[in-house]
Each structure stands twice: as C-alpha cells, then as structure tokens.
Amino acid sequence: MRLATWNVNSVTARLPRLLDWLATAQPDVLCLQETKTSVVAFPTAEVAALGYESAVAGQGRWNGVAVLSRIGLADIATTFAGAPSWDADTAADTLFTDGAGIVEARAVGATCGPLRVWSLYVPNGREPTHPHYAYKLAWLEAYRAAIADEVTAGPFVAVGDYNVAPTDADVWDVAAFAGSTHVTPAERDALAALRELGLSDVPARALKNDVPYTYWDYRGGAFHKNLGMRIDLVYASAPAAAAVTDAYVDRDARKGTGPSDHAPVVVDLDL
Q1: Can you give the residue ranges of every domain in the chain?
Q2: CATH says 2-269 is which class?
Q3: pLDDT tens sequence across 30-41
Q4: What tens digit of pLDDT does each residue of 138-148 get?
C-alpha cells in the first residue's frame, strides 16, 4: 500500500493541485494537514470522484486535518483523549488543560485496511517564550499518552506536520534558528518520548535532491536555494516500519504556480 502525508496549506486553494497529485501519485491513503476549512466545506465529493473516502476534522480558516483512503475507513477519531485546548480569542493567548477553551482540529485518526493512521498538525509554538510553545509541548505529551495502547496493537503510523526538526541536520542552517522554535531541546525531547513508545522515524529520500527537506518558506527564494526544513514526519510502529519498501519526498509537488510551502512525503509498505 502507498501512504502519503502533505501539509497543503489550504485544501481550497490547493484543490486542483491536490486532485492532480492524487491521480498521478495514486496513494492508497493520504493524510492532509492545514486544510483551513470546515468539515462541511471540505471537498469530499471531489476526492470521492477519485475513489477516496474522507475522515475530516476542520474548523473554518485555521488548522484542519484529514485522512483520505481508498482502502476503507473505520474507527474514526477526530481528536484524542486529553487533548489540551487553546483560546486564541482572549486578550492573552491561553492554554487550557481543564476542558475550557477550544480543542483545535489538529488530529484525526482512522483505520485504513491493515493500518492504523493518524494525521497530525502539531501546534507551531510561535516562540519559546510564548504561551503557544507551552501548548505545543502539552499537546505532544497528551498525544503520546493517548496513543500508547494503539502503538502496540498492530501496524500504526502517526504522520504529518510535526513543526519540529528532529536533528540539526534537518534544517538548512541550525544557527539561523537560534532562539527560535522547531529546534529546541524540549521539542526534540517530545519527539523522543513518542519514539520511546515503539515508534521510529521513517527516513525518506528526496527526489532530484540530496537533502529530504519537506518545507521551504515562500519568501526569499528559499525553495530554489534549498533553504528548507524536515518537519513533515512519518513515525511508524515496528510492524509498519518493517514493511516499508520505499519512502521519498516528492519535491516536484512544491514546484510550479501556487504550491503549498510543504512537499508530500510518500511511503510504500508491503502490508
């Protein structure tokens, strides 16, 4: 089976590119992030015309995740137990761990054929001194606790935009990120805690490029200069990781007119 993950940075803006990519790449399962649309406005009919069912968590113009599958969808979860909430409408952005605030549309899980899949859009964090950074760490810890049993139940993947570069080699110049999020020890420790559940980071090769970055800023010609980051990750349980036959970053999907600032990560598995 072919699994892919892609932060599309608005499924509405990217819909023609998405449909073309689905028809060309032919993934059995595609996890989307930053769809920026409500559940009702999600292009369910358009992807269904290509043979895909949709599991969607959305909330208007922010966040949003989905799982598209042409091999079945079951046991759909549009959040996870203990997910912290966030209220961005208060005078000072506030993290809630007591059920107040809004549980953002950042995670959707589904069973697709033999594989349990989660599509994740991890909070950005903004900057290490911002409340959103504490929210990011709390979110990752809550997700780790929520999936502990699922990881050992069978082939399992948690994929998506983690907004964390796991190592210094996963950014074009770590010195450029001094004092910024995405590379701090606490964020990387949160990823390590996920891996300690029995998950491994599936390495991907880059098509036509030596460095498998998955994100490039729109500004300053970052893509053409290859000033990128690897923040779109595939974390797989042992049975899923053992089934991987190929994995690559489809850098070509970042080219052309009106692309997302992320490229898809594609994984082939023999399940």
Answers
A1: 2-269
A2: alpha beta
A3: 999 999 999 999
A4: 999 999 999 99
